[in-house]
Design a protein that fits this description.
One of its GO terms (cellular component) is nucleolus. Residues 1-28, 742-767 are annotated as: Disordered. GO terms for molecular function: DNA binding. InterPro entries: ARM-type_fold, DNA_pol_V/MYBBP1A. By secondary structure, the chain is mainly α. Among the domains are: 450-507 and 524-673 and 685-721, no CATH class; 972-1129. Helices cover 69% and strands 1% of the residues. It contains 50 helices and two strands. The chain has a two-stranded antiparallel ribbon. Helix 3 (58-74) packs parallel to helix 5 (103-117) and helix 47 (1024-1044) runs antiparallel to helix 48. It is extended, with a radius of gyration of 47 Å. It starts with a helix and ends in a 6-residue tail after the last helix. Mean pLDDT is 76; it is low at 1-42, 422-435, 510-524, 673-683, 752-757, 882-889 and 1047-1053.
Amino acid sequence: MGKKRRATSIDGQQSQQQPQLTSNTTLKDLNHSTIEKCNDESQPSFMQFFWEFADHDTNVRTSSINDLIAYIESLSDATTQTERLQYTLRRLIRGLASSRDAARQGFSVALSVLLQSFPQVTLQETIDLLNDYLQIRPSMKSVEQRDYQFGQLFGIMAIVSSKRLELECENRAKYFPLLILKLIEISKWKKWIREVCYECILRILPKVTNEIFLEALMEPLSSVLQCQREDFEPEQLQLHLGVSHYVESAQLTENKVVAQIFSKKTTLLTLANLKLFSKAFKASSSCYPRIHSLWYGLFGALLSQDKGEDRDCFALFESVWKALVDDLLLDDEHTTHERKGLVLKLFEMIVTKVPASVLHGSILSHKLVTCLCNNALKPSNYLHAAAKHCFQVFASSLQAEFIHFLEHQILFPSKLARTLESIPVDSTKKDNEHPASLLEIEEERDFARELGKRVHHIRMWALDQLIHTVSQVILKQDEENEHSKRWQEPLEFLISLAFFQRNEAAPQKVVVAQSANETRNDYGADRIWNNDVKTHPISESFRDALMKRILVLLSSNIASEIPKTTLHFAFHIIHKKLLKLCKDRKKSSKCTLQCAGGESVAKNAFAQIPKVASLVEKAHSNSKSSTENAASRKAFHLLLMFLSIQLLDASLSDDAVVVLQDLERSSQDLFNEKGAKSSKVDVEAPDPVAVLIDILLSMLAQDSSAVRNVVMHAFQSVLQLVNRNSLESIAQVIKPIIRKTNDEEEIEEGESSEGEGEEDEEEDEEILLDSEEASKALWDDVASLDRDDMALAAIVRQVKDKSARKNETKILEQRQIHFQLRVLDLLQVYLTRGSKQSFMLLIIPPLLDQLQATERGIKHERVLHERIRTLFKLIQSRAKLFVSIDSALKEDKLLVTDTVEYIVTAMITQNASKPTINVCISLLVFLVRLAYSQPTSMECVEGVMVRAIENAFTRKHGRFPRRFFEEFIARHHTEAIQLLLPRFCKIFDAKESERPHIVDPFLQSEARRLLTILVRSKPLLREPANTTIFIDSSPCIRHVIVSSMDPEPESEGKLPMKAKRIKTIITLAREYLQTCIKLQSDSCSADLHERLQKDMQTVFKALAPFAAASKSPVLGKDLEKLMSLQSAL
C-alpha cells in the first residue's frame, strides 16, 4: 500500500498546463505535470542514480551522489534543471522512509549535498515536504510508522549537516526552534530513539543564539527534564549535560532562571550529584558493546578545555573517573559483565586523551587493572576478547606506557593476585583452642600456595605481553635514537631480572633523589634492586621461563640486522654488569647484586665472559679489516656472544663453558692470519671446521628453539667451509637408533620369572608339609614378617624401576629423534645451497639406513621418515649440480663406488618397502652412470652389477628390483649396452648344471624382454663400441632365440608356453634381425657380412616350423611379418 501510494502521489496525477517561469517562481509553484517527463524510460541514466543510493558499498553511493549533482549542474536549460531538481527533492525525501539495504544513509547524504549545492532549494520547502510526505497517520502499521519516524529524523539530520542553517540569518529564529521541537516530538514516540534525537539536538544547539534559546527553547527543553535527578534516564542526563555545557559556554549562567534549571559543569559533576545520577550511569551500560552518547558528552566536555586549564580539567576528570568508574561501575557488589565491558570501552576511548601522569595516577586504578587482568588471563571469561582488544589499543597508542605498566605487574603482582577471583581467606581467628591454631597454619600455607600460583600466572601473562611488544618494536626498521630506547630499556629490564638477583645479605642503600638537572643512570633497570622497594620473590620456574624467552627474543630472525644489534646490546649489558659485580666483590664481600644461578654460575661468568669479550672485539675488528670469510667471522661473533649469555643460565652454564673453549680454539685456528702461521705443523691437531661442526651439533642437542635459530644461522655462514671430516661427523649422528626388540625383553623377563617361580614352588611345598607349625612360626617369628615385607617391597620397587626405565628409554629415544630432525634441517640447508663437493655422498648410507629403520615406526619416527624422503628428493633434483669427480682424486672415485656397492648390498639383503626401493633405484641409476663414466672405476661397478643381475635373475626369490635395469636402460642406453648386454648373455649361456643360471621361466621371459630393449638398432648403432659388443654377443642372442622356439612342447611332457612369453621371443627375434640387417647395409667387412648372414638364416630356419605350429591368429600375423624380413637377405 505504501509503495502504491507513493507512486500515485508522484506520478499518477493528471497533467495540467505548465506555468510561466519567473525570477520569483519556486519549486513548489511547479505543477506535477512537468515531473512526468522525469519518469520517461528514455532517461535510464538519470534513474540509475537513485537505484544505486541503497547500495551497501559506500564508494558506490558516494559516486552516484556526485554523478547526480554533476548531472543536474550540467543542465543548461533552466526549465529542465528546475524539473530535475523538483523530482530529485521529492524522490530523496520519499527515499528517507525506505528500509531497503542502505537507502536511508544514501538518500540522507544525497539530500544534504543537494541542499548544499543548490541554494534555490529553500529550507522551508524541504521542511514542508518532510511534513507532507512523512506524516504519520493512525491507520499505519507500527513498522510503517517506524520507517516514517526514521525518515523524519534522517531528513532533519540532512538539513543540519548541509550547513544551510548557518546561512539563513533572517529565518534562523524560525528554523532552529522548529527542528528542535520536531526532534523532541520524535523522541517521545519510543525510548530507544531518544538517544539519537537528543544527540541531534545537542549538535544543533551550539549554533543557536542566546535570544533564540531564551525565547523559544528553554521552556521545551526544561519540560523534558522535569523529574527528580535520582530518576533521570541516561538520555535525560545526556541532554542535561549537553545543555549545561552550552549554557556555560554561552555565558548564560548569569541568568537566574537558566542557572536554576541548568547548573554549571563543576557544580553538576560534584560527588553528591554524581551519586544522584548513579541510576542513569548504570543504565547506560545496557547498550554494550556500544558506548552510550552520554559518556561521549561527559568526557568530551571534561577534556575539551584550553591548555591553560589542563591542571584543573584533569583534576576534575580524575575525580569524575574515580566516582563513576571505580566506585560505581566497578563496585564489587553491584557490578555486571556489561558494566565491566563498558569500563573497558571507556578506557579505550580516553587512553590517548590523558597524559601519562594521569593515566598511571588515577585511570589505571587497582580495580580497573584487576578487571583487565582478570578477563585477559582466562580465555573462558565473557570479556576476554574485550580485555585483549583493550590491551592491543593500549599497546598500539601508548607503547612506552604499556611497557612500564607490564614491568610494574611483573615486579608487584601480589596486590593484584590478592584480589583476583575468590582466594579463600578466613579473617576470623580463634586463638583459644589448639586445633584452631593448627587449622590457621594450614590455611596460611594454602593461602601462600594459592597466592604463589596467582603471582606466577600474572607474571607469565605480563611477560608474554612484554616479550611480544618488545619483539614488535625491534622488528620495526627505524634507526632513530628514540626508537632504540623503546626496546633497549625493556630488554635491559628483562635481562637484569632474568640473570641477576638482589643480595638479601647486602647492606641497605640510601636512595638519593636525583635533581632535574642530573642525568639518568646508564642502566635504569637497576632501580628494581633498591632494597627499600619490596617485591614478591621471583620463583625459579618464572626465572627459567624468562631466560628461555629472552634467548628466543635475541635469536629470532637473527639473519636480519636488527636482532644482531639486540644481541650485541644484551652482551654489552651483561658484560658491564659482571665487571661491576666483580669490582664490588673485590671491594667487599657483600654487594647489592649477584648472579641468579648461584656461585657456580658466577664463577663461570667471571672466568669466561671477560675472555669472550676480548675475543668478540677481535673478531669484530678482523671482520672489518679483512673481507675474506666475512660471513664466517660474523657467525663466530654471534655464537660467542650468545653462548656467553647462556653462561648465566644455571642449566646450561657448564655446557656453555666447554663449548666456548672449543669455539675459541676453533676460531683461532680457522681465522688465523697468513703471516701468523707457525713454522711447525701439528699433524695430529683436529680439523677446526670439524670441531666447529661438533660444537654446532652439541648446541643443537639442547631443547631450545633459540639455540636452534643461532645454530642454523651460524651453519649457513660457514657453509662453504664444510669438508669431509665435518660431514662425516654429521653422518654419524643420523644413524638409526639400535633398540631392543620386544622378543628380547620378553625373554629376559621370562628367565627372571622362571627362577622366581621355582623358588616359590619349593617354599610352597615346605609350607604345606606342616601348616600348623608354619602358621605358628609365622606369627611368633617377627623377623620372618620383616623379611616378607622387605621381599614384597623389593618386588614393588623392581616393578616401579622397570617402568621408570621404560619411560626414560622412551624419552631418550624421542629426544634423539628430535635431535636427528634438527640435523636433517642442517642437511637440507647444505643441499639447498647447491654444494658441489663429491663427499656429500657420505650422508647417503646413514640416510638409507634411517629410512629403512623408520618405515613402520612410531609417530615421531614417521615424521623422521618423511623428512628423509624429502631430502632424497632434493638430492635427486640437484644431483647433477653438487657432484663433480676430478680424475686426479682417487678418494672421490672410491666414494662413488663404495656408495653404489652399499646401495646394492642393502637392496639385496634387506626387505625394503616400495617407497624405499623407488628412492634407491633413482640414486643407483645416477651413481652407476657417474661411476661407469670413469675408466678406473669400471671394474668395480661391473662387479657390483654382476651381483645385482645374479640376485635378480638367478635366484628364485631374489630381492634386487628388476625395475632398476629398465630405468637404467631407459635413461642411459649407451652405458647400459656396454655394462649389461655381456652380463645378460653370460647368464643365458650358463647351463642348468652350472652356477649362476636362470632358474625360472618367468625370469627367462623378463631377461628376454630386457635383452630386446638392449638390441634395438637405432640407439645401438650410434656408437662403434656398442656395435662391437653386439657382434660379440650375436651368437649368444641367436642361441637364446633358437633355444626358446619349441614347436612341439607337449611331446616332451612340458606345459605349453604362454602367448605373452611367445610374443617376447618374437619381439626379440624381430629386433635382432632388424639390427643385423641394418648392420649389413652399412659398410662392413666380408667376413662380418657372411657371419651375420649365417646367424640370420639360422634364426629364420628355427622360425619356420614355429610359425607352422602356432595356432594363434595374432601370433601368426606377427610371425608372417617377421618372416617377410627374409626377403631383405
